[in-house]
Amino acid sequence: MIRSTWRGHTIIKVGDLWEYEDKGKLVIEAPMRTCGQCLRPQLGNDYDPCLGWLPGVLNACCGHGKRDDSYIQFANGLRIEGFVISQEVQQKS
Fold first, then answer.
1. Chain-centre distance of CA 92, in angstroms?
2. What is the pTM of this model?
3. I want to staple 42 with a disulfide (CB 3.0 to 4.6 A). Which of 26, 32, 48, 76 is the partner?
4. Same domain, yes or no, for 76 and 86?
C-alpha cells in the first residue's frame, strides 16, 4: 500500500486515486479538510490555515506537523524550507 500525507492527514493510494486513511473518503471529494496538525479549517488553495496570509509571500506551508514539508516562498524568489515555529510564537496564537 502506498501512503502519503495531504494537509496533515495520512492518505493511501487506491487504484489511481488517493483517499483519507482515517475516513475512507476520496481526497478529490474532500480536499478542504481541517489541518491535521492545528485543526484549523482550510479556506482555499491559496490560504494556509496555520499561517494565514503573509505579505510578500507567494506561497507557504507550515508542514502540517512535518517539519521537512514546511516552506516559505517569497515574491523575491527566496525559498526557506524545514522551519519550526518557536514556542513563543505558538503561545501567542
1. 20
2. 0.57
3. 32
4. yes
Q: Count of domains in the chain?
A: 2
Are 80 and 51 a contacting pair, CB within 8 Å?
Answer: no
CB atoms within 10 A of CB 86: 9
Q: Letter for the amino acid at 59?
A: N
Asked if residue 63 and residue 42 are part of one domain, the reply reads yes
Q: Express each pLDDT in 18-41 by its tens digit.
A: 999 998 899 888 877 777 777 777
The whole-angstrom distance between residue 48's C-alpha and the CA centroid of its chain comes to 7
Short-list 63, 68, 73, CA closest to 36? 63
Which residues are CB-neighbours of 12 under 8 A, at least 6 positions away? Answer: 1, 2, 3, 4, 18, 19, 21
